[in-house]
What does this fold into?
Amino acid sequence: MFKVMEEEIISGLVSKRRASRHLRLWSAGCASGEEAYSIAILLHKLISDLEDWNITILATDINPDFLKRAENGVYS
It folds into this structure.
């Protein structure tokens, strides 16, 4: 899944947005938050000038227990 995300989805979005350096991503139903962190790690890998970009990653879920875990940002 991450190979497809990297090679076909995220890399295409980065290429299309390179001029504006603005990117917004939404991870819906992300449970405890690992998905959003994984996307951030992938962006760090793909964008050499990451500090020059305006990137927002929105992670959502409706399970309050998962949201609390994601808020803490501590994973095994």
Observations:
- Strands lie at 22-28, 54-60.
